[in-house]
């Protein structure tokens, strides 16, 4: 059976991930992501109303025109998890394919949110829910399986396409977490089996984000302990404490909610995306929040909530808000500018349970946000966080476990690929033979 891989997006940047695998006449597309930094560069861009080709020209969504060179039918569109660099272009591209969108429950819920917000295209692809551990037939000879992985968002999977020529493992995004906060541990056992069974692993497409960092990525339980330590140290403080983190990181939000209670404060989630992600996780039974946890997204209800906090005393509450990257329109940035009823005073604490995404726009905005908060007297606690991506040791482990015949580095630009290339070379792989460094819009024929 012919096996071909089209590297559509995410091979020249971090963002707009998209890869297609053709096995005979059947094609599966993994991820359709958005490169948010390309959108943020332009002031007031409303992507909801924009046409796909304009967004492709901006570099914001994958340029899927290479798909016309692939001879076969798309059988499924498979987002791996709910981060925007994996699902953010589905509303703009999925309608071009007569294929279902297959995803884990939480990811699918977030995809639905994306499709509801779309104003330019009517996307009526069938939505199919599939849990980790389950599989479905693709055409007559292939099978698509979801393997449970741990990442900085719940319900992430690594999809595996089993073909008669061997398995294709799509490895974006993960860390190997043996003690995550909300979920089952990383399913290393299943990867071990996949590495050994049948024809073995024909190809492994891997996320190179942290390949240049030594050691292993710590577990979410490490970030949780760090957070607990920081918050317990504030137990005696009677003024304002505010926390921010990735809204999509429901495990972290859950930890913040718990520790707020432990230091005698009522947690309250504020900001549209806080409400969206945590609300979705709660509806699906993925997280158990206290019954009286307030979640407010709309401006009016947020302001009402802030007024209540000011009236009843800041010392009784922990607002958990958006704005960890200093995004200009996010809640924490607005608080820093004094645009909300919440008044920050000398000595108040601000917890960033997040790392600045190393990108000039983010770094500048975050700097500005912190300065605004500091000017009002706030004390900053930053970097209470662990990454969601594998470092060196995780990459060694995956190569050793899967023993792939071919490796395709992804989720980076050329510079970002180089540490991973060195690592793979040290394991016996050779560029141009079984280690395929490529860029967007190319095809790699693995079996002719
Ligand atoms: Zn991710």
From TrEMBL:
Residues 15-226 form the Metallo-beta-lactamase domain. Substrate binds at residues 385-389. Its main location: cytoplasm. Zn(2+) 2 binds at residues 85-86, 173, 411. An RNase that has 5'-3' exonuclease activity. May be involved in RNA degradation. HAMAP family: RNase_J_arch. This is Ribonuclease J. It comes from Halospeciosus flavus. The gene is rnj.
